[in-house]
C-alpha cells in the first residue's frame, strides 16, 4: 500500500521532470522524501532536514538568515577568543571528546547568540541534526503542554535526544543586568533538568548561551551548573565581560 503510493509519487516525478534533474531540491530522492534500498523504502535524509527546519522556523529562525562566524567581528581579547574557539569547535567537531559543550556566558549584547547559531548552522550544513531551543519560549511551551503526555514527551524527547542542541538564553528569566533576580522553581526544574541531565549522562553535546556567569549557574543549581560547565572544560566555556558589548565596541579597550 505504502510502496504503491511511493512508487506513484516517484513515477510521477520521473515522467514529468526526468529531463531536468537539477530542478529537484534533493537529487537523492527527487523530492519524494523516500529512497529505495535493499530493505525497501526508507526516509531520505532531506525529509529529516526539512522537519528540523520547520522546528527552527516555529521559533522564528530561518536557517538561511542565520549570520555566519565570518560576519562576527571581534573587537577585544574575549570576543577574539570566542570567535577562534567557535571556529575550532566546528573544525574539530568530529574529533572532540564525546558530549563536549560550547558555552558562552555573561554580558547581554555581546554576540553570544550570533556565535552559537553560527556553530549550529555550520553543523547543520554537515548534516548533523541540530535542534534550536530558545530557553524561555521552549520552557513555556513545555509547561503549557505538561498535561498532554503524548505531545509533552514528543517535545521533551526532541530536546533530550537531539544530536546537537542549542539552548539560547538559558535561565533568561533568572538574570537581569548581570545579577540573579530569582531562583529556579520546582516547575522550572521539572522541565529543564531531564533535558540537561539526559544529555550530560549520555554525553550528547549542547551549545548554550546564557547571561549567567559560571558562578550564577552554580548558584542557581550546583549540580546542574556544574555538569554544564564540566562538559565544556577550560576550552569551550567563555565568559563575556562588560567590555563585550557590540553596541559599545568603539569604547572597548
Ligand atoms: N562582534 C560582532 N560582530 C558582528 N555582529 C555582532 C557582534 N556582536 C554582536 N553582533 C550583532 O549584534 C546583535 C546582538 O548580538 P547577540 O544577539 O548575538 O547578543 P547576545 O550576547 O546573544 O545578547 P543577549 O544576551 O541579549 O541575548 C546581533 O545582531 C549580532 O549579530
Ligand atoms: Mg542572545
Ligand atoms: Zn531527499
Give the gist of this structure.
Helices cover 45% and strands 14% of the residues. It has 253 residues and is of the alpha/beta class.
Structure write-up:
It contains nine helices and nine strands. It has 253 residues and is an alpha/beta fold. The chain folds into two domains: 2-43; 55-251, 3-Layer(aba) Sandwich (Rossmann fold). Strands 4-5-8-3-9 form a five-stranded parallel β-sheet, sandwiched between helices. Helix 3 (77-92) packs parallel to helix 4 (112-125) and helix 6 crosses helix 7. The chain starts with a helix and ends in a 13-residue tail after the last strand. Zinc ion binds next to loops.
Helix and strand composition category = alpha/beta
Indicate the overall shape: globular
Instruction: List segments where confidence is low: pLDDT < 50 over at least 5 consecutive residues.
Output: none
Secondary structure: helix percent: 40-55%
- Quick one: biggest sheet? 5 strands, parallel
Q: What is the chain-wise order of helices and strands? A: HEEHHEHEHHEEEHEHHE
Give the CATH class of the largest domain: Alpha Beta
Work out the number of β strands: 9
- Rg (C-alpha, Å): 21 Å
Separation of the first and last Cα atoms: 68 Å
- What is the overall number of helices? 9
CATH superfamily of the largest domain: P-loop containing nucleotide triphosphate hydrolases
Percent of sequence in beta strands: 5-15%
The neighbouring-strand order within the major sheet is 4-5-8-3-9
What compounds sit in this structure?
adenosine-5'-triphosphate, magnesium ion, zinc ion
What is the CATH third-level topology name of the largest domain?
Answer: Rossmann fold
Number of domains: 2
CATH architecture of the largest domain: 3-Layer(aba) Sandwich
Amino acid at each position: 500500500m505504502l510502496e504503491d503510493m511511493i512508487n506513484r509519487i516517484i513515477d510521477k516525478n520521473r515522467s514529468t521532470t526526468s529531463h531536468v534533474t537539477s530542478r529537484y531540491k534533493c537529487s537523492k530522492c527527487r523530492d519524494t522524501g523516500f529512497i529505495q534500498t535493499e530493505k525497501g523504502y526508507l526516509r531520505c535524509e532531506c525529509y529529516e532536514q526539512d522537519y528540523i527546519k520547520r522546528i527552527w522556523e516555529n521559533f522564528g529562525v530561518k536557517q538561511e538568515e542565520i549570520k555566519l562566524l565570518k560576519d562576527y567581528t571581534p573587537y577585544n581579547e574575549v570576543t577574539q577568543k570566542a570567535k577562534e574557539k567557535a571556529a575550532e569547535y566546528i573544525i574539530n567537531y568530529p574529533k572532540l571528546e564525546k558530549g563536549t559543550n560550547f558555552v558562552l556566558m555573561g554580558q547581554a549584547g555581546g554576540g553570544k547568540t550570533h556565535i552559537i547559531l553560527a556553530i549550529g548552522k555550520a553543523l547543520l550544513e554537515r548534516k548533523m541534526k541540530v535542534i534550536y531551543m530558545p530557553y524561555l519560549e521552549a520552557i513555556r511551551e513545555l509547561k503549557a503542554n505538561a498535561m498532554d503526555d503524548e505531545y509533552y514527551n514528543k517535545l521533551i524527547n526532541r530536546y533530550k535526544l537531539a544530536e546537537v542542541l542549542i539552548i539560547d538564553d538559558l535561565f533568561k528569566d533568572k538574570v537581569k543586568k548581570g545579577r540573579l533576580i530569582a531562583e529556579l522553581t520546582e516547575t522550572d526544574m521539572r522541565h529543564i533538568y531531564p533535558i540537561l541531565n539526559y544529555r550530560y549522562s549520555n554525553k550528547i553535546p549542547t551549545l548554550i548561551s546564557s547571561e549567567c556567569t559560571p558562578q550564577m549557574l552554580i548558584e542557581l543549581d550546583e549540580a546542574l551548573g556544574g555538569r554544564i560547565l564540566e562538559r565544556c572544560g577550560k576550552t569551550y566555556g567563555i565568559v563575556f565581560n562588560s567590555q563585550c558589548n557590540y553596541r559599545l565596541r568603539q569604547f572597548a579597550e
